[in-house]
Amino acid sequence: MSLYSIWPASGRAKMQIKPKNFTLTALDKKILEVYQGQSPAELAEMFDRSPGTISNRLRELVNNGHIDRSIRYAGKPLPWIESEDKYLLNNYHILGIKEIAKSLKRTEKAVTSRYYKITGKNK
User: Domain spans of the chain?
Assistant: First the structure.
């Protein structure tokens, strides 16, 4: 069997990812004890782990509500989350850009850009 028989002709194979139940690891607990907005590199040095591992754990802790997003992403634009995308798509033509921006605590430009990015439409 060749590799080409596994992959579809159109490009990458699509995998369905099942959400996992999140449980705190020993590393997660250590991170939560000391975390005050440090970079993954700083935490990696403290715990003798790679910055990539720390970054992944921080993302999981944020996504599961253990770390406040505003602390993790202080000084940087917050990444968009699925619930914000759904709200944007469901209300774009109903509420308008100003109202959506206000309720999501984002700029009007950020809302417009995100809308065009997720819908694939051109401005």
Answer: 26-72, 82-119
